[in-house]
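Task 17 of the worksheet. Students: predict the tertiary structure of the chain below and write it out as structure tokens. Keep your answer in the requested format; marks are given for formatting as well as content.
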Amino acid sequence: MKKLVVLLSIAMFCVTGSLAFGAAGQKWYLIKGKDGVCKVIQSEKKTPAAIGGPYKTKANAEKGKAKKCPPKKK
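Model answer:
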């Protein structure tokens, strides 16, 4: 029983550690497609279509999208 608890603890530590390090490299970018539509994407590197970023959070990227790509008035 003790071995099972130790193994489960190690497994949980490995999973949470890999999630934390995996998310650390991800950044949010604002891209504008050929059709003129702006999108927020998550990427490790800046893409050629990026017009904003990197942002640390998706919420910050959405704010940048509102400033750089305001909705067109009809």
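Marker's comment: The longest strand covers residues 27-32. The chain has one domain: 2-68.
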